[in-house]
## 1
Amino acid sequence: MVTPESQHSSTPSLQRSACFVAGCFAIPVLAATPYGTGHIHDTFRVRSSSGDFILQRINTRIFKDPRAVMENIVRVTEHLRGKLAVTPGADPSREALRLIPAKDGTPWFVDNDGSFWRMFAFIGGAVTHEVCAAPEHAFEAARVVARFQKLLSDLPGGPLHETIPFFHHAPRRLLALEEAVSKDAAGRCAAAKAEIEFALSRRELAHSVARRIEAGQIPVRVTHNDTKLNNVLFDEASGRGLCLVDLDTCMPGSVLYDFGDMVRTMTCPAAEDETDLSRVGMELRFFEALVRGYLGEAREFLCANEIGNLALSGRLMTFVVGVRFLTDYLSGDTYFKVHHPGHNLDRARNQFKRVRSMEKQEGEMEAIVAET
Ligand code: ADP
Ligand code: GN1
Ligand code: MG
């Protein structure tokens, strides 16, 4: 387990801004410290005399319409809390995020530089995991994700905004990789020849799920779309899965995206950027726990085509995220936060090793889904 405070890179001036901005949310701020290991936003834990909070500067290079993001999050969190409030045994204050409005009542704050900030109540007594150390984590996380999807299945008010268009559209991700290869903007193609070949030789995989969604065989639902392990909070005392955070990409999607991203991050006891690839692979005992945890909650609302493609979804999402890391490496690291040169290439290699491992165990994975 990683200490969330230890992993974050933030400049002193950004930290000063965070302290100032936190004060604009009507709380008596004591301190703001960098928090978490997310690849996208600048996240701070704010301590105050009225409790702790999470303050985030939204990455508007990636989320180009932050108001749309926040409108979605307001709708989703209010709906979740309303439903949890009438669910026996549920604790809405720890199982759903709660936005804290700025002093003027708006659910976000824009500073003098035009940066967008938002604040959530801090969910205490909870931990996140960077690697899946035990099948129980996979089981619990999958249960939380399935419940999230179920609770949002009757979200009123029409479709959510698509905050990143074609976010998980694998054929477009492959096209973006091909463009990055032909531009070779950072002069790195030669260093990633094997990985480029690996990706471009898997066109069929890239089209597999997109084709079925476009043909109407797989329904579009409200999904989270970023269900990696460290976006799930676990209760520290009991180990039970509590809450899904990181709601920026909660929008219309396929349950296969959510399940697939869990397979990517919860079936291997090594980190996403582990460079000792002998430690990287898909382990069936985690996959089995994931399927059990997920279907235990989700079986009642899934259709046969969704269940039938769960094993494939793991291969697909791991491939897509690998393609995105590789594309970012070739483009000069403009999207994901990196912590050393070649970090995105390390991540891509790691993802592709997972894909190979899933390819080899395809039959066993299918059998587990069928038996569960
Ligand atoms: P990013 O998009 O950069 O990944 P996240 O929204 O996932 O940002 O937040 C980063 C981390 O902060 C999460 O992985 C989680 O550990 C922690 N976190 C986020 N929201 C909360 C919250 N309300 N309470 C406690 N921890 C949180
Ligand atoms: C990003 O924000 P974070 O770190 O939870 C990314 C996901 C990737 C993931 C790879 C908005 O997730 O799509 O799968 O990194 N989020 C966005 O670790 O691009
Ligand atoms: Mg995150």
## 2
Amino acid sequence: MIDDLWYKNAVIYCLSVETFMDANGDGVGDFQGLTRRLDYLHGLGVSAVWLMPFQKSPQRDDGYDVSDYYAIDPRYGTLGDFVEFTHGAKQRGLRVLIDLVVNHTSIDHPWFQEARRDPASKYRDWYVWSKKKPKNADEGMVFPGVQKTTWTYDELAKAYYFHRFYEHQPDLNTSNPEVQAEILKIMGFWIQLGVSGFRVDAVPFIIGTKGPDVTTPKEQFDMLRTFREFMQWRKGDSIVLAEANVLPETDMEYFGRDGDRMHMMFNFQVNQNLFYALASADTRPLVKAMKATKSRPATAQWGQFLRNHDELDLGRLEEEQRQAVFAAFGPEKHMQLYDRGIRRRLAPMLGGDQRRLELACSLQFTLPGTPVIRYGDEIGMGDDLDLPERNCARTPMQWSGEPQGGFTRSDAPVLPVISGGPWGYEHLNAAVQRRDPESLLNWTERIIRMRKEVPEVGWGDFAVITTRDPAVLVMRYDWRNNAVLFVHNLAGTPREVAFATGIDGEHGRLLVDLLGDDHLEVDETGRHRLVIEGFGYRWYRVGGLDYLLRRSEIDSRPDTRAGRSGG
Ligand code: NOJ
């Protein structure tokens, strides 16, 4: 059924049309602006772009409140502009994924308006109602502190409606076969317009049973199979990337034991432990999370991310671990959100230290799966903590030192462009970094290129090689008789490590440095010994005999280090 597993070795770039590039000068990013920036994305080397919601919406939750699934929000352009964009992407070999937000609609959606007005309307049963206030109305809020309840009274309907998220986002009754059919229709529509799949919002809530008497929602996993089948009948290489922050025990239910449900899922378990590892220089819980999420069907894939457009959710860590991450990366109350996370961007959390940013990104790129990066992180953009909730990390892309960072000609951008101070567009922007070979932008471009050349990470099996130092993580990947090996030092001080690759014979003797010229030969004890600088990282290919034979040739080459800062 699947005719291409492109997502197994890809790099996905997430962006919001609203804040990427404004072509018409009204202060809001648009499809024409994004289309002009396709060469930038192509140059960066990403394989796919994931667009956050751009359908018609009153924008009370940054587009995650859709009022028409078949229309572009006029602020971003027209359907024609969208098709021009997907065409331009295709010309450059870039795939397009889009958000699919079907757990709920906006209250402004005509379906909801009709449903509340007319109890006999077919749309009444598209939502979830209760005559009386359900007992658990004050439980299960996703945005604690901001959201007061999950059931709100509607005067017109004379009933309470259920909303897992904000009260302006009534949940669709996804058990209703008509609603399910509509979801497929929405997918079919966008697939026809050239997208390669969907990042599906809030999957556990879509498939969970809903109603006033439901205390523990039951997942209807079959729904996921229906989505996949439909998509692949329409277009064999389209995928579903699920947002499902669930426990490792249930992962296989989401992927499907026969690989017949979600193609990809974000690895929230690894993400949270990765931040703990960065905060504490203790990689053991991260290794545990990697092992707990190791099994997946051959065609399934993890999406590995650092930060996304939401808060960094630390809800799955142990209390002590969570406090350690708060202390390191978000010590002040206004940096935290919803009693569980940190709302800052990556670069400010890591103090803008390029060595540390490279380390974090290198780790992300070498975790089992496909990296999903967020616009602006390639230049180390900052945040604006004066903006409410998650908006602080959603400010416009900083293209240049021109007014408004080159994002818009308007002096009233949709969200303020970060200006002044260490994160201001005046000196932190893509144009400046392009000219500097050692910049984070150029480093990111190089690491993306190299990541695509090590398909072992996306396709292969990993093994963690034990060292005595919990600050140092050594991972090996094997695929089709090739092996690669990665070393990361999460501590800020140099470490000496010794390890055995586990590959016997001549083949495992030499580790060929993929980012520099520090090739590593086995010592007399049969191990590889390395002194690695603070926040250092190494990517090696486990060399074969041919490398040993060409050894002298390698040695005599001038120093061509690939710009490893601190290395
Ligand atoms: C998850 C999205 O990532 C978030 O931004 C949004 O607010 C909720 N789902 C509701 O759609």
## 3
Amino acid sequence: MYNLYDFKIEKLEELLMTNYFQKKYRATQLFKWIYEKRVTNFDEMSDISLAFREILTRDFKLFIPTIFKKQVSSDGTIKLLLKMEDESLVETVLMRYNYGNVACVSSQVGCNMGCSFCASGFLKKKRDLTTGEMIGEVLVLDQLLKEEGENKRVTHVVVMGTGEPFDNYDNVLDFVRILNHPYGFAIGARHITVSTCGLTEGIRKYANEGLQINLAISLHAPNDKIRNKLMAISLKYNMEELMDAVKYYEKTAGRRVTFEYILLKGINDSKENAKELAALIKGTLAYVNLIPYNPIKELVYQRSDDKNVHDFLDTLTKCGVTATIRKEFGTDIDAACGQLRAKNEKEKV
Ligand code: SAH
């Protein structure tokens, strides 16, 4: 049985034409029913013949994850633990910025990247999420928003939840294409961000997709020595390779990346580190997003003092780097990546 949410429009056209001898526009009709009208039952699709609706009911499902746990923070952030068909638990977060409702979507069940500061990696990757399951994460948030007000929707999506998007490349790309498609979620490309820990083949491939979707790179260090300690992936792709891939992306896609940099007390947050970072990314058009660390009780890392955060920002700015400090959400509800899931999986066993 196919999950209809797994298909980007081109793939659905192909499947319906070759296997079901349908006209091409059938895929457009289905997209409009499931994404514009959010119909979840084939019987309601009144412009599709009864005969074909019966075939759809036989061969296709419209799988939407169930809410296993829901936490709401005092700032309105919603954190969900969603249950998939195989009982896998997946975290999805909704953050309310002044410019819109931002969904933070997970791309895998667990993560194998092994960043030493991150709770997502407490549980190794069990499997990739399908395109349809990622679509499901956004559909559930949209349903919750609709309960708050008829016109409320997810307006921005960041693929920054648990998992490494470029370790699940094809499913993630189909997912963002459905988000962006005018008959899909119709979310503007610049309102969608994919974040990678630095898989350089993925960055190069992504550069050639011809997409306007934003790319963020988790850098977190100004040199290989510090990065090797924080991120296992750094041992595979060093800083030089990573910067080469970034420059290739800038040249090929004609867009700049955002570097994410978590400030960890005493580890990567000195003025010298800021100067080194500025020198490292000189020659790219990149912009730096400084992230206050969300402490995890099992780990030794601490967040930088406010003064260090501001000094770091100041130093970058003086060196001509554009940088901002990321606003924090939901710190009262285990909002750090993977924390809620890790806790619940532990309770399950
Ligand atoms: N694997 C991808 C996407 C998931 S991580 C990537 O690495 O980019 C999304 C972002 O959250 C990354 O920048 C990650 O480093 C950061 N992050 C992880 N744990 C964090 C924590 N405890 N506090 C703040 N940011 C964290």
## 4
Amino acid sequence: MNREKIEQTLVLVKPDALKNSLTGYVLSQLSEFHTGLRFAGAKIACVSRMLAEEHYAEHRGKVFYPSLIEYIMGLLHYPDAPERRRIIALVYQGPDAVQKIRDICGPTNPHVAREKRPGCIRALGTVVPLKDAAGNDVGERMDNLIHASAADDEAEREIKLWFRPGDFPPFMRSYLTEINKEEHYYFKDNNLYMTHEPGSVCLIAPGDVVWKSDFDVLRSMQQGLPAAAPLASVAAKYLINYTAE
Ligand code: CDP
Ligand code: MG
């Protein structure tokens, strides 16, 4: 197959956009008519803690991190309605996809977005004060309606985190894949098993198409060697919509 390098980017329509019924608006801002970009992948996902923590791993330890995880899981916007907790994950592709979508989203902070880029998507967001147990202000959480990959390498990591190769039409898979020949890979309590354990989930079976980079992680783990990425970053996509947690 002769494939040109295709630029792709990940978009998440966050729970505040769903709650405020801004989905249609966001999608029309990102439409091919405005951006020249095409849909490559799409799913509605109930975001598990494992997926949320992997997605925002770079922010672990920051003051807003615990609140950010609750936000993307939908716990803050739908505290009493677990069935409404979900996001829309989209992959767009085309020339300059990453930068084009970042530009339409605008600055991370909705206050800054309103000031500097009125009309951008994030200008419709809000900023929520964060308090410690004693009620003192410790920072802010930015409810900015949309996530978009910030750079090409981030896009690759994030797309592979949320999507498996089979989620894309064959000509829209832009990263290397492999077909799993004979092994079964099972997952339970953040551990990898090669044979079925009671309560484990089969992530990958013979014949499945797998990201090559995920395979490399699994093979390293099988051999007891250090892996390039955590097991959770491989497993999370296979568990999307499996259970609510
Ligand atoms: O999303 P973006 O790449 O523009 O920003 P980021 O710095 O990677 O932060 C990820 C997300 O964390 C933001 O989109 C905000 O929702 C949230 N955030 C926050 O709540 N408070 C901050 N001080 C910074 C980021
Ligand atoms: Mg970011």
